[in-house]
Amino acid sequence: MGAVIIDGKKISDEIKAELKAEIDQLKSKGIVPGLAAVLVGSNPASALYVKMKARACQQVGIFSDVIIKDNNFTHARMIDLVDDLNNRDDIDGILVQSPLPGQIDEPAVTFRIDPGKDVDGFHPVNQGLVLAGRPVFEPATPLGILELLDRSGNNPSGKEVVVLGRGLLVGRPLAVMLSVKSNIANATVTVCHTGTKNIAAHTRRADIIVAAMGKARFLTGDMIKPGAVVVDVGTNQIDDPTHPKGKRVVGDVDFDSVKEVAGAITPVPGGVGPMTIAALLKNTVKACRIRRGIS
Question: Among the four residues 127, 145, 150, 263, which has the most C-beta atoms within 10 Å?
Fold first, then answer.
């Protein structure tokens, strides 16, 4: 019997329906949450992500301002743009799509964003508040994963969770968020990375595994215990002569072998990706409420 497929799109649609009802109430008071997305350059994947986020905003009733700049956009002009967005009253959240061209200092841009509009949760102030257990804006992908686990009936409380990857965007903050005492976390967490010896020894004892290493099909069926829940964060392009474009996207999990052992698994695409967008929208509405003093 194969694993249950955790449908991230379905769960994200549930969250978006809840948000739409909340936004409709705000609009009845003359308040419209606003999200600005900045795209610099012509990276096709980045352009697609921004388009998907703008479409999601439209679905729930968030005002979306997509700002597109060419590859020659300078660091100084980028800082000026962020300052302008920080000062705009119609914008509650600011999203700067990564990666940025080499001439732009990405950390400096992140630091420049008003922490109260940092709906991606990347500003050091918001990262520090997550670490302190007093989060305001949690990073969108880790927050989406927690929602995904809870809403799919796989609440991590009291369970052994292994996070594969220690990156600043997913692995590191997720490990902290999973370990805090809350109704959708409260887990015992192990973080594995390139310096970990015998990773399989850790993953085989885990009740839940989150793969966020950026290595195509790294986690295989022989590395997990029967019935484990597997969340795949990876998006890796591999060559595939059978695909019209000669390439296709796979996760960090070897889906075919793992699904035969796991109890539940997220697909790529359609798993974590939609949940990241839902969490971003959720943070935007939260920012709107905080900025306007609405409980």
Answer: 145
